[in-house]
Amino acid sequence: MKKRDWVIIGCIIVGGIVIACLINWSLTYGSWIKTNLSIDSRLSFWGSYCGGIFAAIVGYLAIIYSNRNSEKAIHQQEKQLIHQRIVKKLDEYNDCLKNNLELLNIVDIMGITVGIDYQNLSLAKKDVCRKKAQIYATDLQYRYVFEVDVLRTKTDLEVQYDKAWVNLRSKLSSLLDEELDFIERINQNHYDIQLKENHQQKLHFISEITRVR
Length: 213
Prior knowledge:
There is one protein chain. By secondary structure, the chain is mainly alpha-helical. 84% of the residues lie in helices and 0% in strands. The chain is built from five helices and no strands.
């Protein structure tokens, strides 16, 4: 028990004794209360009175121990919830950083040329569009997890990372735009070549007809 508890228990005992003595004195020597109590009745009074004092002490101890156990349980639950929130936040940070790194590594040095399927340019174009959509999705996750748009004091490391991320995100988006332009030029060249071949076939067909005549 704490020192404060001992003080309160002592005050209950002393206060009970003082009150009992005053009652006993008033019944024995006081002229303003008439009584015919016997010694047995006095002993019975003192016994019940002391029992009441001990009952008050036991009730007080039960209350304080119950409250303290409840406070300990609440504090333990709060610590557990705080720990779970921290773990969840760290997991979100790790997932966000992993997605950022995966996004920045989707294009290698030869990615513009090697990543294009010349036999099916539509699939290559769709893949580039998917990567651009992934940029926006990853950026939204980053802004939410790291609370970029929240008005708060950010550390120097957070500011540096945000600048680096914005710079790399912009360059990656520009690179993918160039890849789309490159695919469009290839597609246009294939169309022009096909048109030229068709035109040559027509000329050849016309020349063959002319020779026959």
